[in-house]
Amino acid sequence: MSEEKVVVLNFWPSMFGARVIMALEEKDIKFEYKEEDVFGDKTDLLLQSNPVHKKIPVLIHNGKPVCESNIILEYIDEVWNNDKTLRLLPSDPYEKAKCRFWADLIDKKVFDAGRGTWTKKGKEQEEAKREFIETLKVLETELGEKFYFGGNETVSVVDLVLISYYPWFHTWETIGDFSLENHTPKLMDWVRRCLARPAISKSLPDRLKILGRVSQIIKVHEFFYGY
Amino acid sequence: MSEEKVVVLNFWPSMFGARVIMALEEKDIKFEYKEEDVFGDKTDLLLQSNPVHKKIPVLIHNGKPVCESNIILEYIDEVWNNDKTLRLLPSDPYEKAKCRFWADLIDKKVFDAGRGTWTKKGKEQEEAKREFIETLKVLETELGEKFYFGGNETVSVVDLVLISYYPWFHTWETIGDFSLENHTPKLMDWVRRCLARPAISKSLPDRLKILGRVSQIIKVHEFFYGY
To answer: Which residues form the GST C-terminal domain (chains A, B) (predicted)?
Structure first.
């Protein structure tokens, strides 16, 4: 495996990029990180690697690009799958389908609701907060007494997908004025267990930096758009 | 395999349900079909099988539910995978990732744009038509000279996902006043090749029945909402 070349194109606050980096770190795969400024000019490498969506993250493995974060996670798990590496998906088809179901549900529900906690106002903002918290409650129930979503021993794609949103929780709680510790305390214990894993804690963006950037975006928006 | 029990919960015009049925038919797996009226009362079986989304299709295999159409397709391909059955996904991780990418892209782009061709008006309708046709052109390029998206020999999940939208094309073309034959003639040849497969043609809903039902919905909408 000495000649493997792995490159990740990412934009630092992205939850979609963070999960790819965590997966590589969890499996101890060396990679080169390339920052893309998604609000600036996209690089030729990004445009060539993901010509349809033109979005990060992209994993480029020995020159071949793989796009869409959860597809990248499955690719990583299938390619680097020797006995020594952690497995992100179970081999049993039914357990695997359940894993995919929860990973898919998180992106379908958490992303939009979370964003709505700071981009929306009034009733719509309350509705976004309610949906976000309800989704986390459903996930807390699914976690149950397990150490991780992947079981007591190891993290799975469900853990990586959900924890990839964690750096944003602080922004959503602060601007939305609510505390997940009050609503889903057991899930917050799970967050702490995940953060105790070096591969996870070192790969996630700084939550204060995200809040700072979002606060700036809101100020600019209010100045120009007046609400 | 004689004691397998497979049940599919579906709503007849659904593209998401149709692809599951086609996969079962392609693999010659016997199943029981149960119609769900998604605009009426949902059955207890649906609510118990898919308590989070409460949506069809659901595949219930020996009592165990699998939800979300593309997750079901992967499950079917992993469970029924002996040498005699057709494989819907390649075994090579990179080829598999590409398959997943295109299947995912179709649902992300075709569903919303297609619906917009009849639920939207004026400029927004034109934009939906433009995006729908553009997406099909990208797919036509990806198909290239291959017989199917899965290669020259066999259909893949990409074929099943895209052809599951075909019964709706007639509605979108009729109401949106455009012809795919003019825009993507090679893709229309691919449609005809897919329809020549009995497993596909017998599993798809009747396109005239869909147009009839949509025309009715539009009349009711115009009567009550006035536009």
So the answer is: 92-217
Region B130-159 average pLDDT: 96
Residue A151 has what DSSP assignment?
Answer: B
The neighbour count for residue A144, using CB atoms within 10 Å, is: 8
| pLDDT value of residue B40 | 87
Q: Which long-range contacts (CB under 8 A, 24 or more apart) does A127-136 make?
A: A128/A176, A129/A176, A129/A178, A132/A172, A132/A176, A133/A178, A133/A180, A133/A183, A133/A184, A135/A105, A135/A106, A135/A109, A135/A110, A136/A110, A136/A180, A136/A183, A136/A184, A136/A187
A105: contact with B, CB 8 A cutoff:
yes
- Cβ-nearest to A101 among B64, B67, B101: B67
Geometric angle at alpha carbon B123, from B121 and B128, rounded to 5°:
80
Taking one residue from A and the other from B, the number of pairs with CB-CB distance under 8 angstroms is: 54
Digit-coded pLDDT (tens) for B44-54: 999 999 999 99
What token pair was written down for B94? 């990179």
Mutate to test the interface with A, among B101, B134, B141 (most CBs of A within 10 A): B101
Q: Which residues of B touch A66 (CB under 8 A)?
A: 94, 97, 101
3-class secondary-structure state, position A2: coil
Q: In order of start, what are the domains of chain B with their CATH numbers?
A: 6-79 (3.40.30.10), 93-225 (1.20.1050.10)
**For strand B64-67 and strand B32-35, is the pairing parallel, antiparallel, or unpaired?**
unpaired
Residues A118-161 pLDDT 10s: 999 999 999 999 999 999 999 999 999 999 999 988 999 999 99
Query: What string of H, E and C letters represents the secondary structure of A57-72?
Result: CEEEECCEEEECHHHH
| Least Cα separation, residue B59 to chain A (angstroms) | 11
**Among B162, B174, B48, which Cα is nearest to B118's?**
B174
